[in-house]
Amino acid sequence: MLQVDELSVEFPLRRGIFQGSSLTAVDRVSMRVARGETVGLVGESGSGKSTLARALMRLIRPSAGSVSGRVRFLDRQWLTMPPAELRRHRRHLQLVFQDPLACLNPRMTIGDMMQEPLKIFRPELGSAARGQLVDAMLVNVGLEPQIRGRYPNQFSGGQCQRIGIARAMIVEPAMLVCDEPVSALDVSIQGQIVNLLADMQRETGAAMIFISHNLGIVRHISQRVYVIYRGRIVESADCETLFASPRHPYTRALIDAIPQISVRPRVDPRFAPDVQPGSPGCAFADRCAYAAKPCRERAPDLAEAGSDHWVACLRLREI
User: Fold this and answer.
1) What φ, ψ does residue 24 adopt, rounded to 5°?
2) For 110-123, what is each residue's pLDDT tens digit?
C-alpha cells in the first residue's frame, strides 16, 4: 500500500555557528507498509519519527524544509501529486495526533468537528446522513452520541483522543498514521486507546503506522517494526524477530530499557552530545560499546541479517 524510497527531510539552519548549512532530520529512509498491516516506528525523542510522519502526510511546507525521495501510496506518486488531486485523495491517509486536546478546535462542538471531514470528502451527503455517521462512529469509539453538542474542554485526555480517532476514521481511510497517540495519556488509559486502534483496524482493514518510543506498546500492536535513530533506519524486522534477536546495539539498548525482572546490559547507555550536521560515521558510534574507528569514519547502510531482517551496523557480523 505504501512504498517509501530514500525519503530525506532537511531544514535550513538560520541561527548560530551553523547558519547557512542545513540539518538532516530524516536521512534516506525506505520502508514498506502492506494492506491491513500495522508497522511500528520506534526511537527516542528527536530521532525524526514525527518529522517522517509529517513528510508522509505532506505537511512540511517548502518554505520550512525540503523533502526529497519517492513515496508511492495506493499506486500514486504521493510527493509529486498536484494540490487539487492531493486534496481529493487525502481522505485515504489520515493522522492521529500526539496531543489529543490541542488537535481539537476549542470553538467547535464535537458534532461540527466530526462532520467537517464529511463535508470536505463526501459533499453528496445531507445533514441527516452526516449526523447518522457521526453518531455511529462515536458509538464505535466507546462514546455516547449525546456528546455531539459539547466542546473539547469538557472531556478528559482519553476521551479527546477517542474523538480524534473517530474524526480520522469517519472518512474510512486506507491508512492511519498514529504519531505517539498515547504518550500524553495516563498509563491506565493507554491500553484502552491501543486496544481501540487495534479493534478498529481489524474492523476496517486499514493499514497503520504506529509511532512511539514505548517498545512495550509497539510490541503489542505491530506486525513489523522499524527502528530509527537520528533520522536513519538502523534496523527493521518482523516484531517477533526484532524482540527475540535484536542485532543493532541501539535496538538492544531500547529493549533493555523496557522494565523487566532481568536486564541484560549490552551497550553503554550514556547520552552523548548531538552529532553536528554533516558529521561522518555512524550516528550511534559515540554511545555504542562496539564502536571502532571505521564506525566514526563512514555511515553504515542497511545489510541483511536474516530473512527480511535488516540492520545498519558496520560490525554486524562481530556482535
Assistant:
1) -90, 105
2) 999 999 999 999 99
